[in-house]
UniProtKB/TrEMBL annotation:
InterPro entries: TerB-like (IPR029024). It comes from Zobellia barbeyronii. It comes from the Bacteria. This is Co-chaperone DjlA N-terminal domain-containing protein.
Length: 117
């Protein structure tokens, strides 16, 4: 999945946990976890520097807590998040309607819209 913009952005621990939570939600949205999605999650964890301890902490983070952290991120970080979620949604070579709806709702909840293009 290696997103170019990840190299320019340093996410804080709370942000990393929130990104993990929301990308996991995207993976689960269509009701099927594909091997390619698991591989994309592993790659994302590596790309943003998430060790196993942080992953464990992220697994006990609620969606609501994640949305607060994501809402508080800077706009450039939100743009990178948009790309991460998009890449995760298509990592199984299919964009499911439920994944698209979840991503759009996430954007609304964290205060980004069409300007992320």
């Amino acid at each position: 999945m290696k997103t170019k913009n990840l190299e320019k952005v340093q996410f804080e621990e709370l942000e990393k946990k929130a990104i993990y939570v929301m990308t996991n939600q995207v993976v689960l949205a269509d009701g099927t976890v594909h091997p390619s999605e698991l591989e994309a999650m592993k790659q994302l964890q590596e790309d943003i520097g998430m060790g196993s301890n942080l992953v464990s902490e992220a697994q006990s983070t609620t969606v609501e807590e994640a949305l607060v952290s994501l809402h508080n991120m800077t706009f450039p970080k939100k743009k990178v998040l948009a790309k991460i979620l998009e890449d995760m949604a298509v990592s199984d070579n299919h964009l499911h309607e439920k994944e698209m709806h979840l991503i759009i709702q996430t954007f609304k909840n964290i205060g980004i819209g069409g300007e992320t293009e």
